[in-house]
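pinned: reference chain
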Amino acid sequence: MPIYLLSDDEPELFPPPGKADKSGLLAVGGDLRPERLLAAYSQGIFPWYSEGQPILWHSPDPRFVLEPAKVHVGRSLRKVMNRGTYTVRYDTAFAKVIDACSRVHRPGQDGTWITDAMKQAYVTLHALGFAHSVEAWQDEVLVGGLYGVSLGAAYFGESMFALAPDASKVAFATAVERFQGWGFQLIDCQVETEHLERFGAEPWPRKRFLGALKEALKEPMRRGPWTEPAAGPT
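pinned: its C-alpha cells
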C-alpha cells in the first residue's frame, strides 16, 4: 500500500484515512504548523514519529476511544480523589506538562516521540486555545498530568506523566468527569493501552470513530484557557 507524501503548500490536504497501511501509517512529510495539525485532528489523523525521522502521520484501525459518559473509576482511585491528595488544575503549566511527558521512560521505547519540534508545535496550539493541559499538583509541586487537543466535543489525548502514585490517573479521571459535564462525546486515546482500558476505553473500527468524530465536531468549541471558572463554548 502506498504511503503519501504531503505537500508543503497545502497544509489542510491529507489523503483519506482509509488509505493508511496496516500499522496506521498514512502519510509522510509536511510540517507541524497549526493549520496542518488542526486539519489532521479534524480528519482523525495525528503525527507520531521519532527524532531523526520525517514527520509520520497516522490513522490507526482500530482506534482506542473512551466515551466520557461511560468512564469507569475504580474504588481505590476514587478514594485517592476523595482524600484530596492532589489538586487538579487546567492550563496553568502546559509547557511544563509536555516537557515532563517527553522525559518519562516508557517500557520498550527508546527515546521519546515528543521532540523539540513537537513541543513547540503544541505550545503554539495551546497559545491559540486548542491544546490543553490537565495537571495534578501536590503542595504546589507539579507531580502528574496530561495534555491534548480539543475540537468541538472531542478531546484528543496525547501523553501523560506521573511523578507520584496515581497522580496522572487522578488528573485524567477528574478531567473526564469535567468532560461529562461539558457534554463531550469522545476522548481519542489513539492506540490501546491497559491503563486506559481500565477506565473503559474500547477499540473502535476506524469507520465508527470517524463517524463519531464528525458528529462531535459539530458541537461548539471550548477554545481558550480551561482555568476556573470553567470555560464556556465558543
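why pinned: The chain has seven helices and eleven strands. The radius of gyration is 17 Å.
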